[in-house]
Specification:
The structure is a single chain. The protein is of the alpha+beta class. 60% of the residues lie in helices and 8% in strands. Strand 4 and strand 5 form a beta hairpin. The longest helix is centred in the N-terminal third of the chain and has 35 residues. The chain is elongated. The two termini are 41 Å apart.
């Protein structure tokens, strides 16, 4: 990895680094002037704010939840909440698996101990709806071989409070109790153990990612001092985001999974932005500017691009706010916060540090010894290799465009066979206690525990009407057994519920079809259906209904932002299409690996035959935003050069020469961070980390290197076309890395005219 430097000084400005018309040493105004004039004060304020963020964000993981896949407004959610109020025993979230061994569960000593456990559990504060095989005689609570049976209960309250109750009572029940061995499972135990494992894995990922990132940064920058700067920016962004999330937990639920995104984006984007800023700063120093002037010019040029890039990433992540599931909304909260904080730190702390360091930013060059030992080589402009590669691609543009597109589409074909499901205990490692309990229940007990559907009936009804409805739903296709009704109350306050066992897995195709039939069945009272399959059906409906809105927000805002950057209506369309192509490999790999189970042994997870419904949406928003991040860096330099010279192909070569090494280095470092996240023992986190890492690498090394130059060659000067009204809009409001607004286009008259580059005139 070579040192990140531009092949040429900044264009369009004076040699001292200031834009045309401003002396190199002239003080900047506004924020730029504040940062450069008072760098020590800036760093001191940032240090104080970071210390406060550490205090405010402490223990944020303990306040987060591990669920959030349900639509709060869905029928299944309403039914679940009503059942919790009226029939706590119908929705157990804690299961005590009692193993009697060879003695069997009907042994008198075993039965006596099991009844004592049941009575003790029923007397625990916060625990309700306790029942067991020994108190109810239900065959569903006894294993088929008679060696195990279940005590079922519900811990009431929201997720955090329920988890605290579980922590309090668990030590008193698990382990050897007289003649039996007790282990804890159930939905609450699964989620609680998942939350604990995610926090442990996140700490391990940070311990892996931070030193590796530092090594890579030293390789990129050469200087140990320069390498520490982006790492510091990333740490500030992560700590600040934890404080923001801690505040958000006071008002709404936040998923613990969002902490993984905080770490990944905090480090990744901070490094992206710092690479871009430091590279431009070094360029200005090389052009003869003093440190203060170099920083001012950097903020007016690269700083604009960083801010612009942060907005594009934030918009992609903000699109998840349209979904009702708090799992997705949590990633929007974390993502928006960490992106904006990373950009803010890169545009305040980093410039202040650069002013104080001056030329010492290159101090402690750890590669100096290697350069001394190496035989001298002919000098070549930095980025010359990228320029030559771009020239080769453009000379064979049709071939590269067709073959690259075909290859990406081919890699994405497995996604056509995607099957959506729900997250369950198999997300956990095989050694997790709660997963072991659930597997024992799946394999050794009749039916699919937790897979039954529950029909809530509300309103007055006679015993005959209850019975007739039971027979009606028992006759539906795909229904194996109906238990109930269990009735509570009378008249208008009457409630009842039926347990319906569908064919196949609890969230399988037959169960999902049964949900629709149950909801369509006529009844003499109001009914609502819940259960694993019902939650999945409602979640898919909620995502499908809002997905066009989310995609529309991302596409429209991306088109607008890229237009403001380039002044072209062609480039924004290219950016959206090419970014989408860069994600095909990720989605194909998600299905081929995580759904179909290829490489499951190597990667250490259990394939379930489906993908959790919200994961593709999350991965699209994150990966698309990161792709736009790299796209903005490249397009800003291409646009700057085209405005200066009017040479379309030369501008493309120049842009790749300037940013090719930068984008590749940033992508490799971000991929390392995401792979560290992907070492998690929880499958969804592993999928997110490894999938986004693949998307980032494909975007930087295939799309930016091959597709962008070949497509821009094919579109030629048409690339810069825009209708007259839009050109005039861009002249007034557009943004460019040159630091100066676009000059008014006095030649524009024909709505279809391609604007002549400003720097190429007269």
């Amino acid at each position: 990895m070579s040192e990140v430097k531009n092949p040429a000084p900044a264009r369009g400005g004076d040699p001292g680094g200031g834009p045309a018309g401003r002396p190199a040493g002239a003080p900047g105004g506004g924020w730029t002037g504040l940062v450069t004039a008072r760098p020590r004060l800036t760093l001191l304020v940032a240090l104080v704010l970071t210390a406060l963020a550490v205090l405010a964000g402490g223990g944020v993981g303990d306040r987060m939840g591990s669920g959030g896949w349900e639509d709060p407004a869905a029928e299944s959610t309403y039914a679940t909440e009503a059942l919790e109020r009226e029939f706590p025993g119908s929705q157990p979230n804690l299961l005590l698996l009692v193993d009697a061994g060879k003695a069997g569960v009907d042994d008198p000593a075993v039965a006596a101990e099991a009844r004592r456990l049941t009575e003790r559990l029923a007397a625990e504060p916060g625990v309700e709806g306790v029942g067991s095989y020994w108190t109810t005689g239900s065959p569903a609570l006894r294993s088929e071989d008679g060696t195990q049976a279940v005590v079922a209960a519900r811990i009431a309250g929201e997720e955090k409070a329920a988890g605290e109750v579980l922590d309090r009572i668990a030590p008193s029940y698990r382990g050897t109790r007289g003649p039996v061995e007790v282990t804890l499972g159930g939905g609450l135990a699964v989620r609680h153990e998942m939350q604990t494992i995610i926090q442990e894995d996140l700490l391990r990922a940070e311990l892996i990612a931070l030193p590796l990132t530092l090594v890579l940064l030293v390789m990129v920058f050469g200087s140990a001092v320069a390498a520490l700067l982006p790492l510091g920016v990333g740490i500030v962004a992560i700590l600040g985001t934890n404080a923001v999330l801690r505040g958000i937990t006071e008002f709404t639920d936040v998923s613990v999974f969002a902490q993984n995104l905080t770490t990944a984006l905090g480090l990744g984007l901070a490094i992206d932005y710092a690479l871009f800023v430091v590279r431009r700063y070094r360029e200005e120093l090389a052009a003869g500017a003093d440190p203060s002037a170099a920083v001012r010019t950097t903020l007016r040029t690269a700083g604009r691009t960083v801010l612009f890039s942060a907005l594009t990433v934030a918009v992609s992540l903000a699109a998840m706010l349209v979904f009702p599931q708090y799992f997705l909304r949590s990633f929007a909260y974390a993502g928006i916060a960490v992106v904006l904080l990373a950009a803010a730190a890169a545009l305040t702390l980093l410039p202040a540090a650069l002013v104080l360091l001056g030329h010492r930013v290159d101090a402690l060059d750890l590669r100096r010894l290697l350069r001394r030992r190496r035989a001298p080589a002919k000098d070549a402009p930095a980025g010359a290799g990228w320029s030559r590669a771009a020239g080769l691609v453009m000379r064979r543009a049709p071939v590269f465009a067709v073959l690259t597109t075909a290859g990406l589409v081919l890699l994405g074909l497995p996604f056509l066979g995607v099957k959506f499901g729900t997250a369950d205990d198999r997300q956990l490692p095989a050694t997790a206690t709660s997963r072991i309990v659930q597997e024992e229940l799946r394999e050794g007990f009749p039916g699919d525990p937790g897979g039954s559907l529950t029909v809530l009936a509300q309103g007055p009804a006679t015993p005959a009407e209850y019975g007739a409805y039971r027979e009606r739903i028992a006759a539906l296709d795909g229904v194996v057994r109906v238990d109930g009704p269990v009735v509570s109350g009378t008249g208008a306050d009457a409630h009842a519920y039926y347990s319906v066992v569908p064919e196949g897995p609890g969230a399988g195709t037959a169960a999902q079809r049964a949900v629709g039939e149950l909801r369509a069945a006529e009844a003499p009272f109001d009914t609502s259906v819940t259960g694993q399959a019902a939650v999945l059906v409602d979640s898919k409906d909620a995502i499908g209904e809002r997905l066009p809105w989310a995609a529309g927000i991302i596409v429209l805002v991306t088109l607008l932002l890229v237009f403001l950057l380039t002044g072209s209506v062609v480039i924004p369309v290219q950016a959206v299409v090419l970014n989408a192509l860069s994600l095909t490999a990720m989605f194909g790999a998600v299905v081929w690996v995580f759904q179909d189970g290829h490489l499951s042994g190597l990667l250490g997870f259990t394939a379930t035959g489906d993908i959790e419904t919200t994961l593709p949406v999350l991965m699209f928003c994150v990966a698309f935003g990161l792709s736009m991040d790299y796209g903005v860096f490249l397009l800003s330099r291409i646009k700057e050069e085209y405005d200066t010279t009017g040479d379309h192909e030369g501008a493309v070569r120049f842009g790749l020469a300037c940013t090719g090494g930068l984008i590749t280095a940033a992508a490799v470092i971000l991929a390392v961070v995401m792979v560290a996240i992907g070492t998690s023992r929880v499958t969804n986190t592993k999928m997110l980390g490894l999938g986004v890492a693949l998307a980032v690498v494909m975007d930087a090394m295939v799309v930016r290197s091959l597709l962008v130059p070949s497509v821009m060659k094919l579109t030629g000067r048409l690339t810069w076309w825009a209708p007259g009204p839009l050109r005039r809009f861009h002249d007034r409001f557009g943004i460019s890395e040159s630091g100066a607004p676009a000059a008014p286009d006095t030649t524009a008259g024909d709505p279809g005219e391609i604007r002549e580059p400003v720097g190429a005139r007269g």
